[in-house]
Amino acid sequence: MNRPGPGPADESAALGGVHIKYLHHCPRQLWLYSRGYRPEQRSDLVAFGEVVDDTTFTRRRDIDLGEAKIDWVTTGAVVHETKSSRTPSPAHAAQVRHYCLLLERRGITVKGGTIHYPLIRRTVDVTWNATARADAERSEAEALSVIAAGTAPARLARARCRGCSYLDYCWGD
User: Fold this and answer.
1) Domain spans, the chain
2) How far apart are CA 149 and CA 152, in angstroms?
3) Which residues does the UniProt record annotate as the domain DUF83 (predicted)?
4) pLDDT tens readout for residues 86-98
5) CA 153, 158, 160: angle at the middle one, nearest 5?
6) What is the pTM of this model?
């Protein structure tokens, strides 16, 4: 399971929002994901998240950028992301900042983002400015560094892995 990740020419173009979210959640998860290990497909929590996404804000259209899929963008270039989590996370904001960066690189003047948490009926605004741009670029560089590493990063403390679809890989016998 120690296959090399994408080649240097492909790396920045291949980073999507999931890569950034996983970087901030668990670098080991990012490293495994980048090598094709995808237990999310068997996860009930991921399936639940897909149902929440599919049944919330049904009049919107996904924006497929190739490497990333944004839930939707409103007039004025505000990025919207829907999460099934009951707890806002810095990883979610980092994912939205990455989407803002990708849109800006395509020549779009982005205003910011909003993360929707329909299960708790809450939204969180994500600012887009020079500091946010620098954070997004730093996250991108960190993700590329993790992906390029020859070995997996250390696992997190087991308590932080609750609900993770990679739990068996990291903590199984």
Assistant:
1) 11-162
2) 7
3) 17-171
4) 899 999 999 999 9
5) 85
6) 0.82
Candidates 3.30.70.60, 3.40.50.1820, 3.90.320.10, 3.40.50.410; CATH matching 11-162: 3.90.320.10
d(CA 1, CA 126): 36
Do 67 and 15 touch, CB atoms closer than 8 A?
yes
Tens of pLDDT, residue by residue over 43-88, are 555 555 565 656 666 566 778 898 898 988 998 899 999 998 889 9
Output the furthest CA–CA distance in the chain (Å, rounded): 51
